[in-house]
Amino acid sequence: MGNEFELERHHLNFTVNFLKAYNASLMHQLDRTSGDILETRKSLNDDVSNTFDFEDGNVMDFISMVPEMRLTETKFNYIENMRETTERLMKKPYFGRLTADGEPVYIGGATIQDNEQNILIYDWRSPIASLFYENRVGELTYRIPDGSKIKTDVSLRRQFQIEDGTLLNMFDSDLYIGDEMLQQLITDSSRSKLKNIVATIQSEQNIIIRQPLNQNTLVYGPPGSGKTSLAMQRIAYLMFTYRSRLKADNIMLMSPNEVFNDYVSDVLPELGEDNVKNMTFYRMLKALIYFNGRRFESLADNIQRLGHGDSTAYEYKTSLEYFNHLKRYMEGLGEYGMHFRDLKYGGKVLVPKELIERVFYEDLGVHPVSRRLHKIYEDLMDIYRRELKQLTKEKFKALDGAPEYIGEKEELKEMANDQATKELAGLHAQIRRFRFVQLEKVYVRSIADRAVRKKTIEDIRQNDFKYEDIAPMMYLYIHIFGAGDKKIRHVIIDEVQDYSNIQYAVMKDYYQRATFTSLGDKNQQIHPVGSPELKVEDHHMMHLQKSYRSTNQINDYLNTIVPGGIDSVSVDGQDVQFIDVEDEAAHIRSMVSQDMPGQMAVITPSREAADRLFEQLKGDIPGLKNLQEVDTIYNQDYLVLPYYLSKGFEYNTVIVTGASFYDDLPLVKYVLASRATRNLYLLDGPAR
Ligand SMILES: Nc1ncnc2c1ncn2[C@@H]1O[C@H](COP(=O)(O)OP(=O)(O)OP(=O)(O)O)[C@@H](O)[C@H]1O
């Protein structure tokens, strides 16, 4: 072993030196290329005068320089990319090694070749690297892009602990007896944001990461089984494997809330990839301009309201029964049930709804619904343009006739047009936003339950749309108007159990050209009412069993809430503490004065409780933050937050206050308790 360690140290030095030399040469090339870019720009300035002149021919000069400019800039970007990669790798070129068919295969954060095209480091996403994540040796196979399998004799699997280019330790796993690197990572809770798990991906996780792009995948796994981590590793894998057709802006990450995006934002850059687009279900609504000006309840407000309010409407609108009814109703809209609004301006009806309805059902009756609406849209835009022309003429006449205006005719025309456009802005917006369709009425008619329908009408009259109205209204909108985002090719949904069947269908139908990887846990619904299980027939189902986040003691406690939920592969820690206290704030104060944890979240049963506790504790805990529903930045070690904002995160120490609040909400308690990596305290005090 001693000799082996020396050999590996030697190899590491060689690799680091190679990377340093490579990096230096890239820096040199960068200088030269940026010099070339400057040179081209300068000659553009010198040779091609500021005013383009076809006769003089300088436009042709300019055009002839474009390909060269593009080429130089592409080259610059490529070199800069490689420079960043080599710099990243100099500190930790690789984390593993295999001996495959007698040849060493080092695995790290990117593929690096020497001058003779020998591969010094294999990217962890390359096909052969998959063997490393099998976590065993022997006769193994891996798949190459054409689908065929390659048989390989793996005689060695070695993990390295490398810091700042120095080999600290290595572990051989010729007999798989447990993963020491994994154990070390699990005990490291020094970071508050999500970390990448590239060096210790487990074989059941590896299979999920490497699922093909062209399939929908649904993954269920208990708390701490790595679902969020896998979501990020999978994005990196897809971007590498399908790099010719999948760029960062073709991938969408659906997050449970806005802060979550910041929580995961370090992982992809660390893996050498750009962050992808992100979205929340609530934010999707903003892209649909029909809904501008409509006030929709946020998820946080919905959770608070339904924590102790009447949930009949919520249950109805998130049920499969209603969804099926809605689909049938929508399919019939081509024949019956579409509602329109008069197109008005200045108090007069320009196009009556009866006319729009007649065109929709009679004149355009042979076309699909969305086609008919787009045709009507075009016709109404023509009417708008005619009105604009007419009004501009009138305004011009008035301006021209007024004695105080003695401007040029052109100036007056422009002024008249501005005035008319302003006056008709409301009319233009009605058409542009498709407001000639009365979507609210169509929606209300889709509700079969009379009491729910009545209440919905009252709410809509007050411009008080509830969270559960968003999905059916968006569903109708997407299908009626044929709306969607075709650029997105893959969607990753985390915490998928928090979406109803209608919400899921909205995402699927809006990102209509995308395949989906959805991850969640049926036992982790944070909503007090919850919704029925997802029915997705065309998804490849996968399950995770093991959990890596919390200590064995915390996992044991979690298993008392959901029996057999978690297969713990973690480390031992202290027992879970259940404490009845008179004054929760005083208790927390005394706890932290004795021993301040590295990171801590105080989770409360409501926003009011969070605000109160924050006021009581902020003087005692430096840097304490009261996390808000609208926050977008996560980076904080000490937090107070209401329970519904804790989704997906983890903290070294979790203090759940008002613990008995969750006695009737065991699955919410399950979510909160599983946020703790090391220490879990469940406090109960008289005051909430
Ligand atoms: N293969 C792994 N190697 C090292 N750490 C891991 C591995 N898999 C998961 N972890 C760690 O376990 C913790 C939980 O991971 P993650 O948050 O991705 O789980 P999750 O399934 O999304 O949890 P939850 O459903 O509770 O939100 C994280 O600290 C993560 O780094």
UniProtKB/TrEMBL annotation:
Any single GO CC term annotated in Swiss-Prot or TrEMBL for this entry: cytosol
Domain of life, source organism? Bacteria
Q: Does the keyword Nucleotide-binding apply?
A: yes
Alphabetized Pfam families for the sequence: UvrD-helicase
Residues binding ATP, per UniProt:
G221, P222, P223, G224, S225, G226, K227, T228
Q: Which PROSITE patterns match?
A: UVRD_HELICASE_ATP_BIND
Keywords, sorted A to Z? ATP-binding, Helicase, Hydrolase, Nucleotide-binding
Q: Which InterPro entries match?
A: DNA_helicase_UvrD/REP, P-loop_NTPase, UvrD-like_ATP-bd
Q: Where is the UvrD-like helicase ATP-binding domain?
A: 200-560
Please, one GO biological process term? recombinational repair
Citing just one GO molecular function, the answer is: hydrolase activity
* Gene3D superfamilies (UniProt xref): P-loop containing nucleotide triphosphate hydrolases
Name the chain's protein: DNA helicase-2 / ATP-dependent DNA helicase PcrA
Could you tell me which species this protein originates from? Answer: Lacicoccus alkaliphilus DSM 16010
